[in-house]
Amino acid sequence: MKQLFSPASLPRRRLLASACALPLLAACGTMGRGSASKLKVAALFAGNVKDQGFMEAGWRGLERAGTELGVQTRYIDGIAPQKALLVQALEELAKDKPDLVVAHGGQNNEACAEVAERHPGVLFVVTQGAVRGANLASYDVLQEESAYLAGVLAASTTRTGVVGHMSGIRVVPGLKGRAAYAAGVRATDAKVRLLTNFSGNQDDNALSRKVALAQSQAGADVIFTMLNAGRDGVTQVCREQGRRQIGNVGDWVARDPQVFVGSAIADVSVGVFQAVRDLQSGHFPTGDIRKIGLAQREAVRLTLAPDVPAPVRERIERVAAEIADGRLHVPTTYDGPEFATPA
What we know:
- The chain has 343 residues and is α/β, with parallel strands linked by helices.
- The chain is built from eleven helices and twelve strands.
């Protein structure tokens, strides 16, 4: 059963925020397998849950928790990633005193830590987060590990000796992913040149098309995209220019193997689902950061297009094993040059 919450049901303070600050409120109640007392989970998505990327993946984790674990869920999405707006949305969720508030994405770190302090009787979790507290934990699906493998793939398959990277906002997981990708490229072939860009927007297809076209014209024939709804602009350029793309979060190879040579899967839905499952089983890691990496292949891995040569596949598998068992440390900082966003 699903229940829709309309802005009309909100207090005036929330209505004013909706009019001035663009947040879209969507909520659902999901009834799963019956129990006398269901856990209540509320979630915040600082973006559109239909973005074909990061936010949608987190939302799928929430939906899975409702279906498989029988918890009641509601969510807010469409919030711009600005601290004041995130705080306001988290306060809106916390005031109903759910068992758990999920803040999806590292952009919530500061806002969630602040709100959690004001609501000691509610548990909070930041997925892809890096904060902890008396009633606060983080789950971090290590997308940098699959991003490193993406760097190995890009350097192994480029024909021009130039590869690209594109992202939007500078959140910690995105910065770590870029650093890992750069390290994978460098470790595979130090002669390959990397063009890396943060455009400031995860969802703007016109902007991403402009950046992708500029990188292509600068020689990049493989571009790793850490974008959400804005990925389509890059795909258009790749198709027109005969370039290849490496996706992230989900399996983009399965959708379009002609454009996507690989996809650095970091299934962040697993973080959302596991946080709820751990709470239900009494193992919620309050005050800790739980990491999920290549050792859990259902969550983190690199998928490859059918035309990737066998030697490249074997190299990637060897590197993945080294990361999973701790023999290879993935760098998470980058201090190299950046590719300017075209005017």
